[in-house]
Amino acid sequence: ASDGLVPDGRDAALVPFNCKVSKKGEPDRWEKQAQYMPMCRGIVTKMQQSQNCREIGVNLVYQNDKFHYAETEKGTEFHHT
Description:
By secondary structure, the protein is mainly beta. It has one helix spanning 40-49; strands at 12-20, 30-38, 67-72, 75-80. The protein has one domain (12-80). It has a two-stranded antiparallel sheet.
């Protein structure tokens, strides 16, 4: 891939998608086609290699979770309520 990540299932992956390949007016015809997709680990790797990234963090929020998030002078505030 042009971003330098290897599709190894950790940094990036080749993911199959059903793609419609028939032309307008023809019966629907679908093919499985692989699409390159960077994964979380690969994105973090690229960020760490960047001169512009100082810090990386993550907080998980699930559907229907209630939480508070704010950027303050002391840093990031995040907590579930």
